[in-house]
Amino acid sequence: MSTYPSTKRSGNSDIMNDRIHNFSAGPAVLPEPVLQQAQEDIWNIDGTGIGVLEHSHRGPTIDRVFEEAEARCRELSGVGDDHEIIFHCGGSSQQFALLAMNFLPENRTGDYLVTGNWAKVAREYGESYGNTHTAYDGSDCVFNHIPTGDEINYSDNPAYVHYCSNNTIYGTSYGAPPETDAPLMVDMSSEMFSRPWDYSAHAMTYACAQKNIGPAAGSCIIIEKELLARTNAGIPKIFRYEDNAKKGSRLNTPPVFTVYMMGLIFKWILDEGGVDEMATRNQEKAALIYDAIDSSGGFWIPHAQPASRSMMNIPFRTSDPELDKRFLAEAQEQGMSTLKGHRSVGGMRASIYNAFPRAGCVKLADMMREFARTNG
After folding, report:
1. Domain edges within the chain
2. Is 118 among the residues known to form the active site?
3. CA 195 and chain centroid, separation
4. How is the beta sheet containing 218-224 ordered, strand by strand?
5. Out of 41, 118, 137, 268, which one is annotated catalytic?
6. Known catalytic residue: 43?
7. Which of 43, 168, 288, 333 is most open to solvent, judged by the fewest CB atoms within 10 Å of its CB?
């Protein structure tokens, strides 16, 4: 029998010297120990002689993969038996549509807090299935902050309130969930398990897996059983969250590899100290970059207002687009990739998810200070 040459490296720091710092907003950096484990399991998982990509999604090996991923997700989120964990195909845009399809009844209204592009897209998908109400729209200020209570205007008796907890393009983040008596739905695609959060207070939490919790092709959904019982009638079974939950996320062939990777990432977070430890690291990493911005005497211009700043995504620029281009080119030469900002904001954007190393933030901050010194 042929054997696969091991590429596994030992240690936890500077173990992948041929890799550069990946600041991409998504698909994004993944934990190196997870990538190493995946290298082996793609060839032969659990000593079965078959790789994880080749196993039946209804066989015992993948049963274990799904069971462990769910158990770890429950441990990290702290939800009890009143919530279901669903691993679903597709990304957040698919969940935008399915959420409204499942839970926006005729003659009811879904309220949306529009704090960025993806929150806006969620509302647009909701409009495809029923009445929506924009309870807040930050487009006039280019989405540079999270709304305070007096900026929010809910409709009467909404079927649900939807928000995006962290806005990748504009670098803003909620400090706490918005207050409402309606069922609360949250898109946490770019920050799930990056800091403590009250998942049990939400009727539905979801995240696509191309940012903080895994590779593209699937989503993780934490959803109240009570909400599932209120699913709209007349929906094809394949689109019903309730039916997917009853079948253990395998109503049809699921994105097995993405779920496998989520499970490994959940384990990595737990092994590293859990969500509290992630928050401590993320606060420190973000502070390094924000300090370089704030101490530059106005050379670096942040997009988000200080009270709304994200720990995951940090957009910034100079006053000169040509300087921005030069900075991006020099950063690439120094092994810092995908720092270009979204076209709606411009400049640069540093996405520093859980798996992004502190050393990369130090390197970027040092370069920012030197660039400001020589070009200011």
Report:
1. 60-271, 274-375
2. yes
3. 12
4. 83-89, 218-224, 204-208, 184-187, 160-164, 109-114, 131-137
5. 118
6. no
7. 333
Catalogue the E-assigned strands of the chain.
Answer: 21-22, 83-89, 109-114, 131-137, 160-164, 166-167, 172-173, 184-187, 204-208, 218-224, 301-302, 313-317, 336-337, 348-351
- Topology of domain 274-375 in CATH is Aspartate Aminotransferase, domain 1 (3.90.1150)
Q: Which CATH class is domain 60-271?
A: alpha beta
Phi, psi of 178 (to 5 degrees): -65, 150
Q: What is the pLDDT of residues 227-274, one digit of tens each?
A: 999 999 999 999 999 999 999 999 999 999 999 999 999 999 999 999
Has 211 been annotated as catalytic?
yes
Within 10 angstroms of residue 169's Cβ, the number of other Cβ atoms is 21
Catalytic residue among 137, 187, 285, 324: 187
Q: Which residues contact 173 (CB under 8 A, 6 or more apart)?
A: 146, 165, 166, 167, 191, 308, 309, 310, 311, 312
Per the DSSP assignment, residues forming a β-bridge with 89 are: 218
pTM: 0.93
Buried b (16+ CB within 10 A) or exposed e, 298-317: ebbebbbeeebbbbbbbbbb
Residue 327: alpha-carbon gap to chain centroid: 27
- Residue 6 has a CB neighbour count (10 Å cut-off) of 10
Contact 243, 290 (CB under 8 A): no
**170/312 Cα distance (integer angstroms):** 11
* Cis-peptide into 27, omega within 30 deg: yes
Q: Over the stretch 181-239, which tens digit does the pLDDT of each residue have?
A: 999 999 999 999 999 999 999 999 999 988 999 999 999 999 999 999 999 999 999 99
Measured at the CA of 353, the angle between CA 263 and CA 168, to 5 degrees, comes to 115
Q: At what angle do helices 256-271 and 60-77 cross, to 10 degrees?
A: 50
Active-site residue identified among 211, 267, 285, 340: 211
Nearest to 350 by CA among 21, 120, 49, 61: 21
HSE at residue 307, side-chain half, CA atoms within 13 A, is: 5
